[in-house]
């Protein structure tokens, strides 16, 4: 269903959003017309490739501050004029970037093509792709408030601002609100489920950087890059010129441990208690590529198991999918789980829980083999009577245990499919 309304895209259309702890500094709005973009599925993570053609939307930017903190945060919302589907889809960032960069804009292009009002935030960090320009107020002094903006606060602000802009523009709040992100965007999605359980009805989150402080420390050890650009241990030592070249393993471990002590409560998202999100009726779908070489897929499996141990009704609100052959968010021999977002939406809007999902593998000859993805802890099993492993219909999800299972074999071969079944 698309809604055609008489809407006016100008700054005066928008009442200043009311966000506790924030002060709106300015609102800008301008109509964008004849906007086209091609959006490959790899930048949408859980949604299929799409084409955005001749779109007309209201581009609204809100500049605000948290008084006393000297920050300036920009939220950018795109509100479709012709074909709004009544829904809101916020998109995440990547690496040290909360949003407002090419990956977020690609995901927004996709959301717009499907009729969503969509949004991104810079969390007040500016446009840099790493933390170097903002991490330290001065040598030895970490900008904890900006780190907190990135970690959590900007996410709730963004949800409130997005819904408020939608209300001003269309005359009503969105029927359903969704989050879509991977990596940093995955971490953001889990933070929302953990701390702001009513912000979104549905959260689709891939390869989440759950153990942020550990992750960045341990990614740095093999590299031990000299001279700066080591944001996480930059953070711990508070010294941009600290030279890691000659750091012993013991010294490194101590810094990594310190990093956890200082920042876990700020930015890590390993809190398994999702009961408030569950009670609010929220639905969560996570996925993780089993050939991810940046964020270990076992961390997300461990998180799912931890949630299962504290929230008895996990089946009522949370599904996790492991994607054989898929790299970090995209890439590798595994394809994107392009049906998951639609399944999440059906769960939120119709109560139909996601079961098996479409998957694919590119074999060694470059041919596509169709597979299914199963909600963890189920595994995909080939029906031996059906016999043709390249057809999704020949696979089914079964409870884990003793099955000879090609997907398992693929995982063990690190993303390389077996040539012979
Ligand atoms: C719309 O954009 C296309 C290219 O994307 C261009 O060829 C066309 O001239 C534009 N039309 C108008 C009316 O600006
Ligand atoms: C592009 O969109 C505008 C506004 O909706 C419409 O008037 C125009 O006919 C469209 N052009 C094409 C080529 O579809
Ligand atoms: C939306 O507006 C902001 C602020 O003027 C600008 O930086 C951004 O490029 C605009 N986006 C589009 C798609 O026009
Ligand atoms: C690291 O150790 C090497 C070899 O002992 C030494 O030449 C170099 O100056 C050291 N670098 C720093 C930054 O201390
Ligand atoms: C399996 O199915 C694919 C796709 O329909 C087909 O190209 C291939 O020949 C089939 N292989 C076997 C062994 O039947």
Summarize the structure.
With 421 residues, the chain is an alpha/beta fold.
Largest sheet descriptor = 9 strands, mixed
Beta strand count:
15
Strand residue percentage: 15-25%
Runs with pLDDT <50, length 5+?
A: 225-229, 409-421
Strand order of the largest sheet: 1-2-3-5-4-8-9-10-11
Helix/strand/pairing category: alpha/beta
Helix % is 25-40%
Note the overall shape.
Answer: globular
Q: Tell me the distance between the termini.
A: 45 Å
Question: What are the secondary-structure elements, in order, as H or E?
Answer: EEEEHEHEEHEHEHHHHEHEHEEEEH
| Global Rg | 22 Å
Overall pLDDT level = 90
Q: Which cofactors or ions or other ligands sit in this model?
A: 2-acetamido-2-deoxy-beta-D-glucopyranose
Oligomeric state of this protein: single chain
The number of helical elements comes to: 11
Describe the structure.
Helix content is 30%, strand content 24%. It has 421 residues and is an alpha/beta fold. Among the domains are: 174 residues, no CATH class; 53 residues. The strands form four sheets. A nine-stranded mixed beta sheet has the order 1-2-3-5-4-8-9-10-11, sandwiched between helices. A two-stranded antiparallel sheet has the order 6-7. Strands 12-13 form a two-stranded antiparallel sheet. The C terminus is likely disordered. The protein binds 2-acetamido-2-deoxy-beta-D-glucopyranose (5 copies). The site of one 2-acetamido-2-deoxy-beta-D-glucopyranose (NAG) has 3 residues, from loops.
